[in-house]
Amino acid sequence: YGRAMLTLAASLLYVALLKPLGFVISSVLYLELQMCIMVQKERRRPLKFLIISIVSVVGIYFVFHNLLQLMLPNGILTGIL
Known about the structure:
Largest sheet: none
Number of helices: 3
Mean pLDDT: 93
Order of helices and strands: HHH
Number of strands: 0
Low-confidence stretches: none
Oligomer: single chain
Shape: globular
Structural class: mainly alpha
Strand content: under 5%
């Protein structure tokens, strides 16, 4: 139940931070946190998880913004993205 509760807490935190921080920052933080929650302590590689998170979020943002022409919340990156 521990990982399930941490996943629920991380998801609620993600939803709360999505508008103020924006999609890119909050998604990178969420994915990093979620990967750390799901992997055993001995196999945690935070830098690897961060790189995977950044690449994934940039890819998703590109698809939604450029290909699908859909806007995602910019948050504090308004004017930069």
